[in-house]
Amino acid sequence: MSTPLYILVTGATGFIGAHVVDELLRRGHRVRAATRSLPKGELMKISRPQYAARLDIVQVRDFSASASFTDAVQGVDGIIHVASPFTYTTTDNEKELVKPAIAGVKSVLDAAAQEGKVKRVVITSSFAAVLDVGRTAPPRFAYTSEDWNPLTYEEAVAKDTSAVVAYRGSKKFAELAAWEFVRERKPGFDVVTLCPPMTFGPIAHPVERLADLNESNAMLWAVASGKEMPVARVPFWVDVRDLAVAHVEALVRADAGGKRFVVASPEKFSYGLVKRFVEEQFEWGRERVAQGEQEVDDGYDLDGERAGRELGVGYRGFRETVRDFVEQAVKMEGREKS
Ligand SMILES: NC(=O)c1ccc[n+]([C@@H]2O[C@H](COP(=O)([O-])OP(=O)(O)OC[C@H]3O[C@@H](n4cnc5c(N)ncnc54)[C@H](OP(=O)(O)O)[C@@H]3O)[C@@H](O)[C@H]2O)c1
């Protein structure tokens, strides 16, 4: 496989997508950034003047409104499909989470199959598609990329299901749709899926107010700003910058084709650890951080080492990730107040 050079990134104006865009641009690729919001796309472009010649923006519709990628894929030879609804504030889980996640994957792959140049599609799935909440330690066990969340579609969309459970279903069924597409349609490209757990780190996408932070970083900020100590549903995490490297390596490494990877730091986290790192690294920390303690759940593991080895990703430490994000969030807060 020759290295794809012109890459369509969906979800480019989101938390993870913007870092993927930056990693591609840093390495000399040409990028087409897909977004639902042209003003947000333009903000991305304006804030990267050094890359203006290699970054173009394309508007796509919401996945719940029959989005088509036919125009967006024209001329590209690789795709990184990051976009998918990630929110726990919903009124209709099937309509807002599950169906659009699946529709997004299908429309990207459909369009890619029509654009003969596309060689590879990398898809951001999630550890949510791997997690089996019924599997508990002891005895100790380790999740790998072989594992699948056992939720049925009916369970994921049941009216009494929480948005957290529906989100897990959205990621599972969207990823399954991708593997099924490859099996049945045998397109001229291969697919790689990445299943990261909680993803934290500094933001590179346009965010006007701290209230608009993406779900995962909003949890870090809740601890740092003294709002609350959220529940850590899993002790696994990855830094967004390492995850961006994993996406680009998954795109360019010939032998990654057809594989599924869990991309995760070997170090575990808890929100209690966030509290401790904020207290240790910021003068104001002790007075401000959320009340309460939370131990790291060290009863089971997730094998992120295979992805580290096969994709050549080195994982940052949690202390650095917390520091870099909180430093940035405090500056944003200062600007909001002034
Ligand atoms: N953050 C984590 O902890 C984490 C962990 C594992 C996997 N993931 C996965 O990573 C991907 C990106 O998440 P993120 O953390 O970067 O969240 P995010 O900042 O909320 O980004 C989500 C992106 O998806 C797009 N999107 C959301 N709903 C959409 C819809 N209905 N139709 C079209 N586009 C839609 C958004 O587009 P606009 O920019 O146009 O609004 C945004 O760019 C998702 O697939 C998520 O499931 C995230």
Automatic annotation (TrEMBL):
Key words, A-Z? Oxidoreductase
Q: Which domain of life is it from?
A: Eukaryota
Q: Which Pfam families match?
A: Epimerase
Keyword check for rRNA-binding: no
Q: Where is the NAD-dependent epimerase/dehydratase domain?
A: 7-263
| InterPro entries per UniProt | Epimerase_deHydtase (IPR001509), NAD(P)-bd_dom_sf (IPR036291), NAD(P)_dehydrat-like (IPR050425)
CDD domains given in the database record: AR_SDR_e
Look up keyword Oxidoreductase and say if it applies: yes
Question: Example GO molecular function term?
Answer: oxidoreductase activity, acting on the CH-OH group of donors, NAD or NADP as acceptor
Please report which protein family the annotation says this sequence is part of.
Answer: Belongs to the NAD(P)-dependent epimerase/dehydratase family. Dihydroflavonol-4-reductase subfamily.
This one is known as NAD dependent epimerase/dehydratase
Question: Taxonomic lineage of this organism?
Answer: Eukaryota, Fungi, Dikarya, Ascomycota, Pezizomycotina
